[in-house]
Specification:
This protein is α+β, with helices and mostly antiparallel strands. 50% of the residues lie in helices and 13% in strands.
C-alpha cells in the first residue's frame, strides 16, 4: 500500500472511489446534504481544536477524515452533474501561484504545485467554506452557474485544507482506504492472514467445531475434539443476558478475521516459535484488548437486539472497533470483514443463547461461522 503522503492522480481517486457510491444516480439532494454535513464536521473538529488545544488529541485525524468525506461527496456531486472533480479542482487553482516540483509519480515526473501564499486565519477560511457550501445546496442541474458554484466551493475547500495544515494526498489516500474497506469486499486472496508461516500446531485450525452446553448449574462449558477448554462461565451480572456464551465472538474472530489471541490461548496454539509475535500479538495485553472489545460490542448490541434483522453495522461502531485494535496485526483487516465477523458472530450467539448451547462450526478458509444444534442435551 502506498504511503498516505504519496502523490495520487485525482483521476485515479475518481475511478477507485466510484464503486463505493451506492446512492441513486439521480439523487442530488442526499449528496448535497451529505456534503453540507461533512463541512459542518470539519468546522466542529476545528472548533474543538481551537477550544481545547492539545487536550483534543484526535483533532488531526478527525479533520483529515472530515475533509476526506467532503471530497467524497463533492466527487459524487460532480459525477451526477457530468463534471470530473479533477476538472473542478483544476479550475479552482488557475489563479493560484504555481511552482514546479519533482513528483513521485512515475507517469509524471514534474508537478505544478499551487499555493495561496497568504491565507486568513482558519476560522475565517472555514466560514467562507460554509458560505460556498450554502451555494452548492442550491444546485439543481448542470449549467454555467452550477459549474461556477462548484469551482467556488473547490477554491474554499483547498484554502481550508491549507489553513488547517493538512496534506491533501494523505486525505485522498485515507478516504480511499476508509470507503473501499467499508463498502467493497476485498478479493479473498488479498485479505490478511496472520499465521501461514507458522507450523500447524501454532496456527488457528482451518476448520473447528466447538460444543457449547449449559449445565443445570447455569454454567456454560466448552468442548473441542471432546476435550474441555477454558473455564466454565456464567453471565457475571444480575440481569442475565447470555454473556456466558460470549466465546462465540472469539470463534467468529478466529474463523473470519484469522485473529483471536483469546482463542489461541484457549486451545494452546500461540505462536511461541517467534518470541516477538508471541509477546506482542498473542500475549496478555492482546487478550485483554480482545476481551475488552468483545464486552464493549456486547453492551452496544444489547440496545440493538443483538443486531437481529440487521445486515449492516454503523460506521461509527466499526470505527471504534478499529481504534480498539490499533497497533495489533488485525488492524489490517478491512472494515467490511469486521462487519461480517460481528454479524455472523451475533447470529450464532443468538442461536446458542436461545437453545442453551449448540455446536459452533468455524471455517477459516471460507471465513464463516455457523451453528448446529446439539445432538443431545448434556445433563
Amino acid at each position: 500500500m502506498p504511503t498516505p503522503e504519496r502523490s495520487i492522480l485525482l483521476r485515479s481517486y475518481m475511478e477507485q472511489i466510484a464503486p463505493t457510491d451506492r446512492l441513486p444516480d439521480e439523487d442530488l439532494r442526499s449528496v448535497q446534504m451529505g456534503l453540507f454535513g461533512e463541512v459542518g464536521g470539519i468546522m466542529a473538529a476545528a472548533k474543538k481544536h481551537h477550544r481545547e488545544g492539545k487536550a483534543y488529541a484526535g483533532y488531526r485525524r478527525a479533520v483529515e477524515e472530515e475533509f476526506g468525506d467532503a471530497l467524497w461527496y463533492l466527487t459524487a456531486l460532480c459525477r451526477r452533474l457530468g463534471y470530473g472533480v479533477d476538472d473542478i479542482l483544476s479550475a479552482a487553482v488557475e489563479a493560484y501561484d504555481k511552482v514546479l516540483a519533482a513528483s513521485d509519480l512515475i507517469t509524471g515526473p514534474i508537478a505544478h504545485v499551487s499555493s495561496t501564499a497568504l491565507l486568513p486565519p482558519l476560522d475565517d477560511t472555514l466560514l467562507k467554506l460554509g458560505d460556498a457550501t450554502a451555494g452548492v445546496l442550491g444546485i439543481r442541474e448542470p449549467s454555467n452557474e452550477t459549474k461556477a458554484l462548484l469551482i467556488a466551493f473547490a477554491d474554499r475547500y483547498l484554502q481550508a485544507l491549507q489553513s488547517a495544515d493538512v496534506v491533501f494526498s494523505k486525505i485522498v489516500h485515507l478516504n480511499l482506504s476508509k470507503t473501499r474497506g467499508r463498502f467493497l469486499m476485498a478479493d479473498s486472496a488479498h485479505l490478511p492472514t496472520f499465521d501461514d508461516r507458522f507450523a500447524r500446531e501454532e496456527r488457528i485450525p482451518e476448520k473447528f467445531e466447538i460444543t457449547i452446553d449449559q449445565r443445570k448449574s447455569g454454567k456454560c462449558y466448552l468442548r473441542m475434539n471432546d476435550v474441555f477448554i477454558g473455564d466454565p462461565l456464567t453471565d457475571n451480572i444480575l440481569d442475565q443476558d447470555g454473556y456466558r456464551f460470549h466465546d462465540v465472538f472469539h470463534f467468529a474472530h478466529a474463523a473470519i478475521l484469522h485473529w483471536s489471541p483469546v482463542f489461541r490461548a484457549l486451545i494452546k496454539q500461540k505462536r511461541k516459535s517467534d518470541p516477538t509475535v508471541d509477546e506482542a500479538q498473542d500475549g496478555g495485553r492482546a487478550i485483554v484488548v480482545e476481551e475488552g472489545l468483545t464486552a464493549w460490542l456486547f453492551a452496544r448490541a444489547k440496545d440493538l437486539d443483538y443486531f437481529k434483522g440487521q445486515d449492516t453495522i454503523s460506521y461509527d461502531l466499526l470505527k471504534t472497533v478499529q481504534q480498539f485494535v490499533a497497533g495489533y496485526e488485525v488492524q489490517d483487516c478491512p472494515l467490511n470483514l469486521w462487519e461480517t465477523a460481528i454479524l455472523q458472530g451475533f447470529e450464532v450467539f443468538r442461536k446458542v443463547r436461545d437453545n442453551f448451547g449448540g455446536v459452533v462450526v468455524g471455517d477459516r478458509n471460507a471465513r464463516t461461522l455457523e451453528y448446529k444444534p446439539l445432538a443431545e442435551t448434556t445433563s
